Amino acid sequence: MKNKKYTIADISEMLGVSKATVSRSITGAPGVSDALRDKVLKLVEEVGYQPNTVARGLSTGKLNIIALILGDMRNPFYADLAFGIQKLLTAHNYMVMIFNSEYDSKRELEFIQLTEQFHFAGLILITAQNKEISDKLKQLNLPKVLVNRIFPDYDGDSVLTDNFQAGYEAALHLIELGHKEIGFIAGHLYSSAATHRFEGYRQALRNYSLPFFEEYVFHSDLKMETGYELSKSFLALKKRPTAMLCINDMTSLGFMDGCKEAGIRFPDDLSLVSF
What we know:
This protein is α/β, with parallel strands linked by helices.
């Protein structure tokens, strides 16, 4: 029976019940007896019927899909996060659509607008970056969660880590290894995670009366390719720090590749900690 693609109309005709009854049985909605629901679900399983999620969403005015907007799918942190989010939402009968912005705020704004245009059930945003996005989120009439990002005037749901403490402890680790000149590869100036990590690093230097050198600070866009290019600026320094903190793993991988090409050995010649 599974060779044919069955519709909800076929199921209702085969059982002699209304399409609404079949739909309520499948979705677990009230108004259907247990015996009839079991009968519907048994036939659905036998024929291999698959509900059309998009069609059902268009009819109800809301798609059962959660948008997940992230910056770089190559980043293992995002991959692990997306896996966990999808696993949990699938268990609650939601699908996840992943949008890869490559840290482009214009693309992120377009993706947010799509969730509104197509009536998504919700939005999870990991790369919120500027005021335009903040303003758009205020107007967005659907459930939304910011992950590891926050805006000063945002009062919605968010899941955050203590990025200030992370920056402080990373710098402290290098200080305890004996390093006195520590540089930093920073991220976007408008990223709360990046700025808080940098502030934690600066506080650790102050607490241990260590010098801060502006020339030891490099700014990245969180991409691997940019890390590679920044290694050239690092290598061009007349005097280099003995240790570096890097804003994320992808940037650090590019930075390490560039340094290794120049003969720098990790950690013999340069210690590196990344987030």
